[in-house]
Amino acid sequence: MASSLWDEECDIIVAGSGGGLAGAFAAAEAGFHTIVLESTDKFGGITCYSGGAFWAPGNPVNQRAGVDDSNDRALAYFQKVVGNEADADRQRAFVRTGPAMVATMERSPHTAFEWGPFPDYYADAEPELGHPIGRLIFPTPLPIRELGDLQDKLRLSMAADISGHAEPEPLSGGRALVARMLLAVRDTGNAELRLNSALQDVVMEGGRVAGALVATEHGVRRIRTRLGVLIATGGFERNQDMRDEHRVAGDAHLTAGAPGAQGDGIRIGVAAGGDVGLMDQCWWMHSVIQPNGRPGFIAALNGGMIVNNKGERFANESIPYDRFGRLLVKQEPKPGTSIRAWWIWDGRFGDRLPAVYNPMPILSFAEYEAAGLWHCGATLDALAEKIGVPADALAGSIDRFNGFAETGVDTDYRRGEAPYDRFLATEMPKLFGVADATPVGSPNPSLFPISNGPFYAAAVGLGDLGTKGGLKTDINARVLRADGSVIKGLYAAGNAMESVTNCHYAAPGCPIGTCMIFSFRAVMNMMGRSDEIAFDI
Fold first, then answer.
1. Cα–Cα distance for residue pair 271/284, rounded to 1 Å
2. Taking 90 as the threshold, does the pLDDT of residue 148 lie above it?
3. Closest Cα to residue 31, out of 2, 10, 9?
4. How buried is 444 (Cβ within 10 angstroms: 0-12 exposed, 13-18 middle, 19+ buried)?
5. Where in the sequence of the chain do the CATH 3.90.700.10 domains occur?
6. d(CA 112, CA 176)
7. What residues does 464 pair with on adjacent strands?
8. Is the pLDDT of residue 145 over 70?
9. Residue 483: pLDDT above 90?
10. I need a labelling partner for 183 at 20 to 30 A (CA). Which of 127, 224, 303, 438 fits?
11. Architecture of domain 282-464
């Protein structure tokens, strides 16, 4: 029963409807009245844009699949990659809690998961600890009809939302993950799922969060919460003013973030006294700029090479996208554009991108050419002139690259040596059923010479999969003040919190995994059950 000061009451408020749903399920399944707030008209946020996989090593799904791994080995790997740049206790909390979170989620008949291959992103740097095949789990596909009246309330995939691509049936990837969690939360009978309901502020009483102000289509509602508020609203990648304030490289129009990623949750936490960190950081990626100005995520390059606006190669093009993106940050964009580099390939691939898989639909060459983003030249000199790079520099870069393709050894950047490189070249085509149509280099499967005209170039920009700076938190996702003290009743997870990975992207599925796991830890703390997910400090 609500008092005169409040419009209604509940036990727990979860702001955000992506990975935070893992926390919402844990609370509602335990019998606590939980309200999930989504600021937009669709559930799922950036999680729906993702592949839906998450990193929670040593979980029951991977154990049943017979994956040769252990939580101890994964923790050692994560600690090696992240080092002392992030709090050691938070690192342990993240890795150690994954199995318990997955086991809890699996108590719902809706949350069906399976193991799928995808190497850790630093398996080359840490060969004894990184997993060359991967520790990911994925949601199983879900027929959209099983969502019932929720099916029109689920955010579209990245390809559909950004470029109008038709959605496949059944649901897969991030949409399947969010859909399964929505069904799990709803069917507990203890939760409410609310669209167009934006967390506007938190209300403090006696030094702790007592409730929230929520902006709805019918005005602002005051909701009292008996246990706490979890901010799992995502980052601020779609807010250019906030990006500029914190000097985040790149542009809001080239992010792959969802529309609700405006940073509101972070600002609310700061207004309540919370401290922030990593505010200039993102989960970076390199992007094939689309004719509509939006990003085209480069996920699996298997041909050609990438040069900067000086015509110089600057990285192993096959390394994971965040690692490549961090090198792309250092490249100057072409004046007046977002173009930081050019993807160069030759006639053996025709006028299509030499990639195993593109999360975004690739349009016709003519559409990109009309937008000034793709070019073709009968000779390398002609191509260099069209893209505005020095012809001699481009020719020199390609000659050197072709030498590497002939010997099979890239002495500059070691392309084709890491497990991830080899996976893209030899295993990923099998996963997508394109192995017969996908060429494999020889003697190095990742290297092809650029020698057969005509020659092609596609504009590459700096994109991101969301910001990773946010509210500072402890091992239980409690928001901290600058002096390290806890703001009672206020929690943050996912891209609304300072990432436990710091400036690294240790493995695929870390963004979703950190949100799900710390949302889970948050509600367990609210319910007084943190001792059930204790870990060795």
1. 28
2. yes
3. 10
4. buried
5. 282-464
6. 10
7. 255, 284
8. yes
9. yes
10. 224
11. Alpha-Beta Complex (3.90)
Given a contact cutoff of 8 angstroms between Cβ atoms, the answer to whether 339 and 309 are in contact is yes
| Beta-carbon-side half-sphere exposure of residue 283 (alpha carbons within 13 Å) | 28
Q: Quote the DSSP letter at residue 427.
A: I
Upstream peptide bond of 139 is cis (omega within 30 degrees of 0): no
pLDDT (mean) for 244-261 = 95
SS3 content of the chain, % helix, strand, coil (to 5): 35, 20, 45
Q: How many CB atoms are closer than 10 A to CB 408? A: 15
Q: What is the mean pLDDT of the chain?
A: 95
What was the pLDDT predicted at 1? 45
Are the beta carbons of 494 and 234 closer than 8 angstroms?
yes
Measured distance CA(192)–CA(12) in Å, rounded: 11
What's the first-to-final CA gap in the chain, in angstroms? 41
Question: What residue type is 168 in one-letter code?
Answer: P
Query: Does CATH place domain 8-280+468-531 in 3.40.50.300?
Result: no
* pLDDT tens, residue by residue, 188-230: 999 999 999 999 999 999 999 999 999 999 999 999 999 999 9
Orientation of helix 510-526 relative to helix 21-29, angle to 10°: 30
